[in-house]
Amino acid sequence: MGMRRSKEEFACPGASLTRSLLVLYTVSLLVGLVIALGGNVLILNVSLSSLPMFGLPIAFLCASVIAAALFGLTRLRLKPVYEWFRENGSKEQEQSALFRLFRWPYELLVVMSVLGCLFSIAAHVADKLRSGGAAGLAQADWPRLLGIIAGEQSLSVTLGIFMFTAVRRLLRPILLRVQPLPDRFTPHASIAQPLLITYAGTFLIALLSLFQLIVTAREAGKGVNLYVFAGAAFFYFTAGLLLFGFVTLQFQRELRELIRRIRELVSGGREGIGSRMPVISGDETGELALAFNELQARIGREYESFERELKLAYNVQEKLLPPGDLTIGSYRIAARCRQSRGVGGDFFDVLSLGPSRFAFMIGDVSGKGMPAALMMSALLLLFRAEVKRCGESAETLSRLNRQLCEAMGEEGSVSIGVGIVDMATDKIQYASAGHLSPYLVSAEGEAKPVESSSLPIGFDTDARYERTEFAMKAGDRLVLYTDGLIEAKDAAGTMYGFQGLEAELAEWGTSGDLSGFVDEWLHRLDRTFRYGGDDRTVVVLEQAAHLRKPSIAADSVSPGGFPPGPFVNREWSLHSRLGEERGVALELGAWIEEAWPEANVREDVQSAIAEAIVNAIEHGNNLREDARVAVVAQIGSRLTVCKVYDEGGGYFPHVARDEAEMEKKRESDDPRGWGLVLIDSLADYWSTGRDERGFYTELYFMRKTKAGLGL
What we know:
Blueprint: H1 13-42, H2 56-77, H3 79-87, H4 91-138, H5 142-177, H6 192-219, H7 226-266, H8 271-274, H9 284-320, E1 325-328, E2 331-338, E3 346-352, E4 357-365, H10 369-390, H11 393-408, E5 414-422, E6 427-433, E7 439-441, E8 447-449, E9 467-471, E10 477-481, H12 483-486, H13 497-506, H14 514-528, E11 536-543, E12 568-575, H15 580-595, H16 602-620, E13 628-635, E14 639-646, E15 655-656, H17 659-667, H18 674-682, E16 685-691, E17 694-702
Antiparallel strand pairs: 1-2, 2-11, 3-4, 4-5, 5-6, 6-9, 7-8, 7-10, 10-11, 12-13, 13-14, 14-17, 15-16, 16-17
């Protein structure tokens, strides 16, 4: 845009243009001379000897003089162009040179018409003066002379129109070489000018030629030969139509090229933005090309800005998503997320919830592109916060649904499937919010859908979600996916569908690399199917028994106690309803009895945990049933640690047991705080705190024998 051109770029155009124009002028005038001589001899029946001015030497001399005059005038008018070619001048010189290039065809037409008229009149006047002096000029047969001059003028106009169209064609390659045009360069012309010039010129040519024919026939005392008149009229009409069609064809080509470029731009794609429309005329088509280039440049800048933002969003999205290949305990996970527009609304997550539990999730936001990617990023962060808080699949969906409805209203919906894996028991609790049913594939290749679904989140604030539980055995695989995979179509329009998915899963073997299976499967799909611009995501969990660690294996717990060293973990999640604490306390007491059969802490643990849960329900969650209480228990060979989480504000910073405070509560008649007194008397130590899951009360129990001695 307004850039300086290299000298090498313009080393040849100046000389090439000079040669081309000189050849054009010479050939055009010689052809015009032949036509003039032939017309006078064949149509007017005038011999060359009777018209001295048309003698070959004088005729060629006139043609040479006109050619030299045209060439000299061309050098003068196009001087800025030649200087620009030689010197690679400034922007002002470039503006002047381009203006002359656009205007010269019009100027040449006028010059050729004027020169032809002047030379014709001058030649006839000189001929009369030479033959008879002033008297010969006065006695000349002016009607006949005017007819001859009219015929010659029609020829000069014809040559002018021919040169006009030919020079426009000659200048086209040069104008293409100087693209893009400098900024703020707008050549003022009209598409009607060359059309009107061509049309009016050919009409004038026909009139002058027919006028010459009529005058000549009248002076000869003969009537007009209708065949000659019709033939001449047809000849000039055909010649005019050809010239008019040639000029019109040039405009048609430029307009078609412009339409093609606009369609490329509208159809989208980066290739439609890179190429500029050359401006090779100063009329409306040139202005349209300039406007198109400005629009294209603006779109290009916005597209580059959008690409930078898209790349940034892609990087953020990639960092938010977990790695595609994971191993957690005895589970291998292979996940692949392919967005149709670089970023999109498909997402997945795998999140550890402790030494023996982890959560997985797959989701699909309605829509595509940047809006879906923004919602996806927000939901991913919300999911991580909520699943850590409650540790339960159905409740996590309920919380996400409420927050999405409050934030988005009815403007968005998301289908999500959430699962919680207990690696100690290999049980999975799964809940779905409008997401496609996953497939549980046995080691023998039998694929069964896991039916669990409800409304997508974002529709109804009060929607309830139910969970289903199932166990995974060694070699089993759980396959989750989004609708972009199912709705893929091949070249014949056949959808991949659930049948294609089930057939694929049935062929998977139990041995081999899980990631390799998934990658090879998706590669085959990409070769055969088209996704219609839809995102697609696949998450596969595999229970790999050989990866199982004894510290979390269910059969590693013997009646005689746990192996020394590592802790074994269990978690519970319950609604804030009084009475819910009893089931958790009983399960935890039974687990303690199983782990420490010779110890006498079961009743203490049950009572203390039940009181801590009641305290969390009443004071932490204020008896709100939609709030959750989570219990995390860790049993080791010598110590049991239990955390009871609630959703209240709690105490901050960290607060631990205070002996003086406990003594005051024991002596007080106020029942408030007696729960903490009970916990203090039953637990060996307790404290409160806050972590990423929320506020908690933490209780510690030492392993003691029934004789009251610690082991």
